[in-house]
Amino acid sequence: MSSRLPSKDRLSKVLQSVAIIVFGFIVSGFIMLAVGYDPIAAYSAMFFGSAEKGMQGAFGGIYGITSTLREASFIILTGLAAQIAFSAGVFNVGVEGAMYLGAFVSFMCAYVFSAPAGSALGVLHALFCIFAAMVAGLLWMCIPAFLKIKRGAHEVVTTIMLNYVATYLTELLVVKFFLPTTGIPPGGIITPEISKSAQIPQIDFMGAKLNLGIVPTILVAVVMYIVIKKSVLGYSIRVVGANPNAAKYAGIDVGRIILFVMLAGGAMGGLAGAIAVQFTEYRFDQSFSPGYGISGIPVALIGRLDVLGIILAGVFMSALHVGAQSIQPVTGMPSQISLFIEGVIVFAAAMPGAFDILRTYIRPKGEKNE
Amino acid sequence: MSEILVDPIIFVSLIFGAIRSMIPLLLGSVGEVTLERSGLINMGIEGIMLMSAFASAYGSWTTGNPLVGLVYGVVVGAGLGLLYGYLSIKVRADQVVMGLGLTTFSLGLTEVLTVAVWTTYGYGKSVARMPSLLTITFGNLAYEVSAFLPLSLAIAVGAYYVLYKTKYGLMIRSCGENALAADAAGIDVPMVRYLVSIFAGILFGLAGTYIAIDWNNIFIRGMTGGRGWVSIALVIFSGWNPLAAIGGSMLFGFFDTLQYWVGASLGSSLLPAQVPRMIPYVVTVIALAAFGKRAKSPAEAGKPYVKE
Q1: Domain assignment present for A370
Q2: Which of A94, A124, A185, B244 has a CA 20 to 30 Å removed from the CA of A14?
Q3: 0.85 surpassed by complex ipTM
Q4: A176: which chain B residues are within 8 Å (Cβ-Cβ)?
Q5: Which of B90, B102, B292 faces A343 most closely, judged by CB atoms?
Q6: Nearest CA to A140 among A73, A95, A110?
């Protein structure tokens, strides 16, 4: 978490993250074996796909790679949202809810209004929809943030409860206002397409379609890097995260810092929602997220609260999710397999003490007190 | 609307429903109260409940005997409680992160195991259910009283008695208030926390078992529906007091059951089905907002104790 690490420490952090991931895969592999599946086949399907089943996994072909990059933009954003909260010692699990509301607001703004596509007005419209989504996520996050600051309510519980409320709310709105009551229902709880002017085009990438969600994502990552590492605000955030009492004595308004990190996370969640609607699907689909908001937590943890680390971890976690889609047709295991690998990884990431324990076993006895 | 409120049949069925919904919340919150009193916080209740729900359904499925399911559910709960205790006490893992990890892991693992056991996705097949204690009839309404009802009430009262009226309770509470002083007084802090952790794990396991093979007779993906998290909110709501947790669980159970009643009585044309489904979650947030500040948590809950 500290800003300038000696390169040796940074290397050891990277090694720890790699160790956590490897541990996650090994434990999950043993569980698969115990249940009666072949973990090697599952992992190979996950990352390289299977030609005979026509699945590309996460990296086994151009469609796999573009899918992985597409999902990565969501997961990196929710990871950054979790990171900025973690930096101040706050657990923001509510990014999922902010993302759903952001997606819905982005859809509404993009559906109700329209402008000539390709014109300056059209670009303005697209930007307006993205901005509205971010505001929606931010406003939604005000609820748990104020409850934490003013009422001392634990943010993990309130944000998880509010995630349920947010997803039911968007489902309600779509079912009530956008699903036909007669005739053939569309496949799932989805809305009609948004106006052309709000659609951000996908580019052609070696024959496959690649969405541009990664562009705003990287932009947010850069802004966050600068804020956390170079600004007074970022310094205050880190002081609050390290020791809230010391921060209070140093004259930092701890409540305002907590408010800031949570609202920033909400805005990032809202942006992720806008990416789902305006960059990817061009409509609101109630089932667009397989838990991107929750995946932000492991991404922030294995990214070691480092912006570059989070980008890499986000791509990895996205590969896990995309790859899991190939596992079901190849091995018969449900795609939720990604959740359990993710769970083991979060579990392992919770254990900084484990590395010390391992080290004392590995090291010769004499070096212990180094 | 007003006839519905005064109709005794509906009123009674609502009360019975509330009692049914209360049981897992009571077991979860009493376990967590005891745990936090000893200085640990288990944020993985949701995950433990889900794993036990699966284990009990599996046990009941393979043997046809729900009591075997009960044993499976309790053993899984105790085992995960012990694991949680070990990782919190010995490895000093971050208890909040670990809870999120355990919950995510359980969601994924139970899904995979459902396919492995029943070869169906998301749902298991119906299994033998726990026998009910007795059946109360009210008009043409029959309500089966679950054996878990007296059990969970007895556990809550027993936990209160042990925590506040015995020297063991004093030991537990001193570990949560000031572990250093407790250690100086000769209390084996890690041992107390291990035992409480297993006890709490058993209660979470019972809650999951109840949900899967008593309340229902099938395992469904994510069937605990956030009740583990609601239990954590209840701990705060009830001010870390197992007796107050009975009242709190009853109230939350009422709102939990109200969602079905509101949905059924108003019909989806008047009120979309999603609105009543939000009720328990909204109530939890409101309760945390109203009681979060007043509550005084054990001083060292969640802080690992490092013996110098």
Answers
A1: no
A2: A94
A3: no
A4: 272
A5: B102
A6: A95
